[in-house]
Amino acid sequence: MEHFAYLDSGSRGRLFEVEPEEFTPDSPRALLALALGATLYMPGTRSHLAADARRLGAVGATSIVWCLEDAIEHDSVEQAEANVVAALHELLADADASSRTPLIFVRVRDAEQIRRLCGRIGDALPLLTGFSLPKADLSRAGSMLSAVREASEGLGRPMYAMPILESEEIAYIESRRPALQQLAGLFDEYDDHVVCVRVGGTDLSGIFGLRRDRDTTIWDLAVVRDALSDVINQFARRGDRVVSGAVWEHIAAPRMFKPQLRATPFAEQDASKLRSQLIRDDVDGLMRETSLDKTNGMYGKTVIHPSHVSVVNSLLTVHGDEYNDARMILAHRDRGGVLASASGRMNEVGPHARWAEQVLARAQVYGV
């Protein structure tokens, strides 16, 4: 699969200087982590999961999560498990499913559920990319990761895990940093299986009785922002792991403040109607938060509505000026020094080298 595959060749040629490259579940873990993009969550009880997967792949989703945890009622777990198993077997019977469906993850409740599901899924297990591990604190993460490793046996590739950091030990200042250090060591033990680290923005906010509205971002909630900052500091300090952004939980509704999209950039591209549509669909707040995620070193985002997918993924593309700066910096890496950018920025080779590496990795996945 590849990002923006739904665009026709003419549009791709007009929009991209460098087109996105293809990737598969067998791609290197670091590339796959970046390629997740906007990860769409849906309840495991939802009817027609297999058809939904095919439909979402057609509109640009590259990763989805079927949730068996917070998104369903406690007495619906058995029904949801059966539904997920049936959907994977339906996709197994579809010879073209692997090329037309996003990467599929299942959000589980505990390690035992991982083992139970793998037994029930049987020969359809290769269609599953991995598991989303909620509330992955020190008391739970190890057992769930061990179960994921067991699920990989005989698969021919790693079964992946996406631990979600969202518990009180991450939220509270006195326990956060020791916990993050221990979790980093644990994730290193299961390095082949931890595809990315996710953060639970809703859970972290809820611990403090907070909830951001559509006119603010997760970065405006000070206590949550501090936790996110420490997560990035621990796991992404050398580009070690991809940390994905918190869920955007809003769909269109009335608002209090002005839209956050300036008119000029859209007018310059004869795209004023697009600006109006984005404001009408109430995604300018999502665009603002995704931009702040990216600025702070988070790539990808959890979303809850198909209309959010292309918005997030488009913001992860690389601008031509960034791409040219990154190539210039890395071409002079052995020499060092300061270079003048054609875009009017100062490129200082040493300090900007890791940024340049990240830009080129993102360009490979999302295009330029």
Structure description:
The chain has 368 residues and is of the alpha/beta class. The protein has 17 helices and ten strands. The chain has helices at 9-15, 29-35, 49-58, 77-92, 97-100, 111-121, 141-152, 168-171, 173-189, 201-207, 222-235, 264-268, 272-280, 284-295, 309-315, 320-331, 349-366, and strands at 38-43, 63-67, 103-107, 130-133, 160-165, 197-199, 243-248, 301-303, 338-340, 346-348. The strands form two sheets. An eight-stranded parallel beta barrel has the order 1-2-3-4-5-6-7-8, surrounded by six helices. The protein has a two-stranded antiparallel sheet with strand order 9-10. Helix 16 crosses helix 17 (349-366). The longest helix is centred in the C-terminal third of the chain and has 18 residues, at 349-366.
The amount of helix comes to 40-55%
- Uncertain runs are none
Please give the radius of gyration in angstroms.
21 Å
SSE sequence, one letter per element: HHEHEHHEHEHEHHEHHEHHHEHHEEH
Query: What's the total count of β strands?
Result: 10
